[in-house]
């Protein structure tokens, strides 16, 4: 129905923790509301909303959309306006008086069942895309002055919640350009990185500071020596497998009940000598290191 087109703007209402009224129909019997932060409405669920005078009106969800829900009220609402807070009826077990009289026996589920549903949602999983700028370099056991090689990070990851808290496990797979440069030449090393990070969210909310750390395993895809005269394949000069640690700091923004965006700063430190020639008397020990500036988009699939 055209009168519910305004529901679209709910996609940007991530700063709201509780569900809120978006629009009331002219008949005052239909209503559009947002999803609760981190939880979606289900068809048949009951809810109540109070007007500015404290009078309560209850209704039932009839249709669920990506940004909110369409509802049918038990009786015409009076004085309810956009922005009024909506509360699940099954969370009002202690209500009394006029609010209690608005509760019906047609609840979709008992309070304990709804609690289990919300807990299951908290233990969900997300999948995402991550990419950005990589400043690659190497550390050696001899004195050397190398410049950063500018490259890209492009990959996918999964966010798997651990229990009901703020911890999650984040496996990822990414194409990462590493290496180093000097004024006259550069060594361009391209890797496929498999990482396994443990992530913590410091608070719950629309803007959430996050940190992650864990090991990564790299597979060398190609290695090129570049200079003014062209490129030379030097893959045989480097080991195929590299191992290291990766740490990230940043924040996550909850754009909707299913979509999150974020920015990250990351530091990768190789722990193994990547040179194929391990005779340190003739060849220095070389280890990868990177500074990365990344953005990501994540979709919840629970």
Structure description:
This protein has 302 residues and is mostly beta strands. The chain folds into two domains: 2-121, Thrombin, subunit H, CATH 2.40.10.170; 123-300, Beta Barrel (Porin). It is 6% helix and 54% strand. The chain has helices spanning 97-101, 111-122, and strands spanning 19-24, 30-34, 46-50, 56-65, 68-73, 85-88, 125-140, 149-161, 167-181, 185-201, 207-227, 230-233, 241-254, 259-270, 286-300. The strands form two sheets. It has an eight-stranded antiparallel β-barrel with strand order 7-8-9-10-11-13-14-15. β7 and β8 (149-161) form a beta hairpin. It is elongated, with a radius of gyration of 27 Å. It starts with 18 loop residues before the first strand and ends with a strand.
Q: Main β-sheet: number of strands, strand sense, barrel status?
A: 8 strands, antiparallel, barrel
Low-confidence runs (pLDDT<50, min 5 residues)?
A: 1-16, 91-123
β-sheet strand percentage: over 45%
In the CATH hierarchy, the third-tier topology of the largest domain is known as: Porin
Straight-line distance between termini = 28 Å
Total discrete domains: 2
Widest sheet, order of strands: 7-8-9-10-11-13-14-15
Please tell me how large the radius of gyration is.
Answer: 27 Å
Query: What is the overall number of helices?
Result: 2
Residue share in helices? under 10%
* Averaged pLDDT: 82
Multimeric state = single chain
Highest CATH level, the class of the largest domain: Mainly Beta
What does the overall shape look like? elongated
User: Helix- and strand-based class?
Assistant: mainly beta
Order of helices and strands: EEEEEEHHEEEEEEEEE
CATH arch. level architecture of the largest domain: Beta Barrel
Tell me the number of strands: 15
